[in-house]
Design a protein that fits this description.
By secondary structure, the protein is an all-alpha fold. 70% of the residues lie in helices and 3% in strands. It has two domains: 172 residues; 36 residues, no CATH class. InterPro entries: ARM-like, WAPL, WAPL_C, WAPL_dom.
């Protein structure tokens, strides 16, 4: 597993420059390695703890960077805005696959694991990135993948705050925009109720009126 983690770290370092310039070779390496780690950590607490503790949180830091990279790339290069038969479209599909695999791995590492939830929640910007995966990112990916994204992202948020007071406080105090569908609905109805910054809890719990 240590070799796989090393490959993840190397690929993230190589890819983490301009999110619009990710190379296929890096994302393929990341996807393959993350899927391997996802499989070995599923319902295996020994492997989960080993990876959490490995080399001063090396994997956790790399996964946080990879998650941010995927989120930013999808926002600037939506899957449905590319040539369906071109290299950019293939890259966009791989980035979405990588995002979902990353979320599944993070879910494994935070499942009933207070220490893992604490260490993962401490990564700079990670909780906000996961929040964006719930509130904004679904509009940029194919409809048939939105449910998976929402379930995985919400599941990870729940894991992060369920047994950790610090993470819960961070999420409660976080400010964000209304969800994309609430903003779209406000535009249609000429309402101002879903415009501007709100608390993360308000954004997560708001209901559609139409």
């Amino acid at each position: 597993m240590a070799n796989t983690v090393a490959k993840v770290t190397e690929a993230v370092t190589a890819a983490h420059t301009d999110p619009t310039q990710i190379e296929l070779v890096h994302i393929r390496t990341l996807n393959r390695c993350v899927r391997v780690l996802e499989n070995v950590t599923f319902m295996n607490t020994d492997n989960q703890q080993y990876l959490l503790e490995l080399s001063n949180l090396t994997l956790i830091k790399a996964l946080a960077s990879f998650l941010s990279l995927c989120e930013k790339h999808i926002e600037v290069s939506p899957a449905d805005s590319t040539d369906p038969d071109g290299q950019d479209a293939n890259l966009s599909k791989l980035v979405i696959q990588g995002l979902l695999a990353n979320l599944r791995l993070l879910l494994n590492l935070t499942h009933n694991n207070e220490w893992g939830s604490m260490k993962i929640g401490e990564q700079d910007g990670l909780m906000f990135t996961v929040l964006q995966c719930v509130l904004q990112l679904p509009q940029f990916i194919p409809k048939d993948q939105r449910f998976d994204l929402l379930v995985l992202s919400l599941g990870l948020l729940i894991n992060l705050v369920e047994h950790n007071v610090t993470n819960a406080r961070i999420l409660t105090l976080m400010k964000t925009n209304h969800s994309y569908d609430s903003q779209a609905e406000a535009d249609q109805t000429k309402s101002e109720g879903s415009v501007g910054e709100v608390s993360s809890i308000s954004a997560l719990t708001e209901e559609k009126t139409g």
